[in-house]
Amino acid sequence: MAYINLEDVELGFAEKPEVPNKLTSSYFPSKIGGKPAWLHLLTLPHPEDLFCEKCNKPRVFLLQVYAPIGHLPHCYHRTLFVFCCKEPSCHTRNCNKSFLVLRCNLPQANSFYTAESSEILNGDIHKKALNVDKLVEKAGLAKSDTTQIVHPLVQEDFQDENVTHGINTSLCMSDANSTGSLKVEETTMGGQHQAEAVKCISKLPPLCVVCGCSGPKRCAKCQCVNYCSREHQVIHWKAGHKRYCGNEKLPTSGGAEDGGLLFEEFEIITEPEPPIKTTPEKSEAERMKVYHEFVKMNPEKLEAVKMDNLTLDDVEKGVKKDKQFLSFKKRIAVEPDQVIRYQRGGEPLWISRENMADKIPNCERCGSRRVFEFQVMPQLLYHLKLDSTANHSIDWGMLAVYSCESSCDSGPDGVFYQPEFLWKQDPSI
To answer: What is the CA angle 294-300-302, rounded to 5?
Structure first.
């Protein structure tokens, strides 16, 4: 038997995180559900850019894939984010309007992570230190500024003994605070006070306490929590904010602040796709010959076909149509739990011959063609508890993500999260 070399395909698997803090921005995670771990921290997508094209409600974070491109300096850090509408009625067959893909890339020398702490060692990305000087410059502050601000994009973390940087500050989503300020603790590392290093950071955008996206709106009564939209304010109010709004002491954590809106959080663990054994396949003519002989030997089967008002041609077309699905099943049988298939510049593993991508639009920013990057498999629906048989439910056969071949950098307009293209394919009926 021959072997197919599939070393250029990376498979992603959903696993519960052993250390949830490692699914935050400073670790550059690939993850599913929860709140997004933003890459560029100062200029986030506007809330309206995340609204569903069908119902005009905010999409929620589905997953993100960290995918740097080594030969492109401006893509030293690079993450693709996928958002999804939670309204089941918005998910119709082979329609992508309820999904959104955004791409963000940063060079090694950037405003958020120190270059010396951005090295990838043995394929493992180590925790990044906060690039204080550049953040202060961005904020337009003096280093002597003593304003203390607590902000959910910045959170202390001193528990990682492997970190040897002078500053060990995790840039991440924190459910504890949404007041637009940086929480400061007096901790000395490398001879430098943590408070002195981080107290100057300001102007980080307020985040929606429900979804972790940009939250320009604020609770009018307590002025302590932010929201991306009226819809999420209502969700938070019903989830418990009405009980403590206006109190002097707000809860330090909110396990149910999203009211069940967000998807359950998983880490994406990757490994190369193993080789699969193959056997010589029969030609289409040989397969149809076997089928015709089978029908002749089993006339009752042909009668059943006629009762369904199907012609023999219809059945033959169905056999050809199922061939792609059988090929799909055979390919994933080696690793049936895969939720992501990554192969930038490769080809998707289609689930059906119907509705295969034909015209992929070029990048709207630079005009470069888009290439296939990764696909989201239907197995993810099980992990997210979305494998419903209802007529209206969040469902897909596969989601193919295409991105700019040049992975173009941010332009003069200062938009750091560029829209990319997603193709939704559902199984044949």
So the answer is: 65
